[in-house]
Amino acid sequence: MQKRWSAAGKTAVRTVNRRLIWLHKYKKPLIAVALIITIASASSVGYLAATRDPAGAAAEMVRTEANSGDVSGLQSLNEALNRDEQLCETIEKINLQEELDQEKAKAEELNDALESKDNEMNQLEDTILNALMSNLNTQMISRSSGSVSSYAEEARNLISLQNKLANFKQMPEAQEIDLTEYEATISNKLDYLPTKKPSSGSLRGYGSRRHPVYGHYHFHPAVDMSSPTGTPIYAAGAGTVTTATYGGSQGKYIVINHGNGFTTVYMHCSNMNVSAGQKVQKGEMIGRVGSTGTATGPHLHFEIRLYGEPLNPTIMIMQ
Fold it and tell me: 262 and 304 in contact (C-beta within 8 Å)?
């Protein structure tokens, strides 16, 4: 018997005639036996015809003709068996096709379920990203009305979000969400804020003080970071180098425009690795500490200006 799938989704049985199966199974042996019997009968008839009288021979001829009828019957049997075999093959093909249709239906059902799950995950990802981007936008300030304190607050918020994102990416749940856009948005905004410490040494000396060379009191718009000659100097933020030259008391100095109202100044370099017009990334080495110009020893004179006005670098340096 062969199984098939009914319209109601249950297994049904397609019955094949047991006689057909038996005949199909023993077809060749049956034909062989029948042929042997026929040949033996014909031989016997010939022998008897040669040893008996003419009347008996005539009778045997009649029987021989009857035997030829048996051969025709065997041919009919063979044809019937062939038809039965073809019928079995047809039924088997039908059953195989039904099984194939069942598997195809299962595959389509599974594919639909996977697509539904994928759509759910995409919707969840969009919801999470929209919430993250909305929260990020609330941390931003208007570029036309930003104050030093508001920029500093924005920088702190961005650094905090960046740290939280780095921690979240270590969790298994992060593998289910594409955070590339969110991470890039934070980086792009933070990269151009001058928050990276440009060199080793303490951030000291901003504000009113006695000039270390000339002795008079004056306003010092920068911090002096004492370091050995040759200590690397890094860009506090990404931007474009507008100046890389030598100037009297400044010695060798570099100015970077960060494109958001901020500029940073690096004086007394022993050498400079950049030139005017060059694009630099945050943290990229731009020169080395020295004592060129008016200086009592090797150090970095570092300024941060917002729309041309100096501000205390300790407010912005956070990384």
Answer: yes
pTM of the full predicted structure? 0.56
pLDDT digit string, tens, across residues 82-112: 777 777 778 877 877 777 777 777 777 677 6
Average pLDDT of the chain is 75
Whether residue 315 contacts residue 152, with contact meaning beta carbons closer than 8 Å, is answered with yes
pLDDT at 28: 63
Q: Hey, how many other C-beta atoms are within 10 angstroms of the C-beta on 76?
A: 10
Single-letter residue type at 190: L
Largest Cα–Cα distance in the chain?
A: 163
Contact 206, 314 (CB under 8 A): yes
Residue 79 vs residues 18, 73, 198: alpha-carbon distances, Å: 18, 10, 99
Do 269 and 299 touch, CB atoms closer than 8 A?
Answer: no
Of the candidates 265, 225, 260, which has an alpha carbon nearest to the alpha carbon of residue 245?
265
What is the enclosing helix (H) or strand (E) of 55? helix 54-139
> Cβ neighbours of residue 221 under 8 Å, at least 6 residues apart?
206, 303, 305, 310
Where are any strands of DSSP class E within 223-290? 223-226, 232-234, 239-247, 251-257, 262-272, 279-280, 285-289
Tell me: the pLDDT tens digits for 104-163?
A: 777 776 776 666 555 554 554 455 455 455 555 555 544 445 677 778 888 888 888 778
Structure tokens at 23: 């005949």
Question: What kind of fold does domain 207-316 have according to CATH?
Answer: Glucose Permease (Domain IIA) (2.70.70)
Confidence check: pLDDT of 8 > 50:
no
Question: Of 128, 135, 131, nearest to 174 (Cα)?
Answer: 128
Higher pLDDT, 65 or 258: 258
| Eight-class DSSP state of 272 | E
Q: Check if the beta carbon of residue 199 is closer than 8 Å to that of residue 227.
A: yes
Delimit the domains of the chain by residue range: 13-116, 140-191, 207-316
